[in-house]
From TrEMBL:
Organism name: Hydrogenophaga atypica
InterPro entries: DctP_fam, TRAP_DctP, TRAP_DctP_sf
Signal sequence segment: 1-23
Protein name in UniProt: TRAP transporter substrate-binding protein
Taxonomy, superkingdom: Bacteria
Family (UniProt): Belongs to the bacterial solute-binding protein 7 family.
PANTHER family: C4-DICARBOXYLATE-BINDING PROTEIN DCTB (PTHR33376:SF7), PTHR33376
């Protein structure tokens, strides 16, 4: 009898312990390079709000904007090691983990945000994110950084030749180094948190980023000129550590997945609505903005064609064709 009671008590204790483990609070550290007030951080804030509501406070999300936990590559390593739970970063940076992600960095691939949405929200975007699992990460959704433009402190850019000789900061990956070289400029790969100081100290002449990034990080304080080149579109992957993900129960995974997708929709809306006001703010602060005439824009595309061809091979011709087929559907 005593033995039966003991077994019952042990079983009850095991059930209680299991229940406690299932209900145990989870904490997510979520990092990004952009500062508070930027649309990417607004996406993080919306994610945290949705998770808080849906989990009844059982899942806590702590945000780390402004590169406070290091650059993108450091964040990826931390994610794989399990010391960081989530990050939002330019999808093309993930090409160092899965080569197919290089397709997102091909210059002039997307003409507008409608095309980008169709690709990243469809089967193509999901297929690429699924490839991250073998690298210790799980792709949840895509935020938007936007179309990139070139700034510098030397001279206005009204023709392609004006870019020659400029020392430009680029995202530290090969395709960005090569397209800057193709324009006759000097690429300087730098982690994002180091860019403002490098511009201020004249270690570099310029950089290239979307309008909202340039504004939020106050690069216009240390730059005189910007050309609306729109040479590259950046989706941002919202990814979570597989080590952390595998330790979640089904309900927790559902909450986090839904929050990522819902916050992505909100984030893109914010990103697009802020472009005009960000540009206006920088112009008022003294930034001189130019646009390339259509003939010069054509020359820019022509100069970058060899780079596109080279990295289409690196990303995989099948992957590039699949993306182009998706774009063709949208353009019809």
């Amino acid at each position: 009898m005593k033995r039966l009671i003991l077994k019952t008590l042990v079983a009850a204790a095991a059930v209680a312990a299991f229940g406690a483990a299932q209900a145990q609070d989870k904490t997510i550290k979520f990092a990004t390079q952009n500062p508070k007030g930027h649309p990417i951080v607004m996406g993080l804030e919306k994610f945290a709000e949705i998770v808080q509501t849906k989990s009844g406070g059982k899942i806590k999300v702590n945000l780390f904007p402004g590169g406070t936990l290091g650059g993108d590559q450091a964040n990826v390593s931390a994610l794989q090691g399990g010391s960081l739970e989530m990050v939002s970063l330019n999808s093309g940076i993930l090409a160092s983990q899965v080569k197919e992600f290089a397709v997102y960095d091909l210059p002039f691939m997307f003409a507008n945000s409608k095309e980008a949405d169709a690709v990243v929200d469809g089967s193509f975007g999901k297929k690429l994110h699924d490839k991250l699992q073998d690298k210790g990460m799980v792709g949840l959704a895509y935020y938007e950084l936007g179309f990139r433009n070139i700034t510098n402190s030397k001279r206005p850019i009204t023709k392609v030749e004006d870019i020659e000789g400029l020392k430009l900061r680029v995202i530290p990956n090969p395709i960005n180094v090569d397209w800057v070289k193709a324009l006759g400029a000097n690429p300087t790969p730098l982690p994002f948190p180091e860019v403002y100081a490098a511009l201020e100290q004249k270690a570099i002449d310029g950089q290239e980023n979307p309008i909202t990034v340039i504004n939020a990080n106050k690069f216009h304080e240390v730059q005189k000129h910007m050309v609306l080149s729109n040479h590259q579109y950046n989706p941002q992957s919202v990814i979570i550590s597989k080590k952390f993900w595998d330790g979640l129960n089904a309900e927790q995974k559902k909450i986090i997945s839904e929050a990522a997708i819902e916050s992505a929709k909100y984030q893109r809306e914010q990103a697009r609505s802020q472009v005009a006001s960000a540009l206006d703010n920088m112009k008022k602060a003294g930034l001189q903005v130019t646009e390339l005439p259509s003939a010069e824009q054509g020359k820019l595309r022509d100069k970058l064609r060899p780079v596109v061809a080279k990295y289409a091979v690196n990303a995989g011709q099948d992957t590039v064709k699949e993306l182009q087929d998706e774009l063709a559907k949208v353009r019809k």
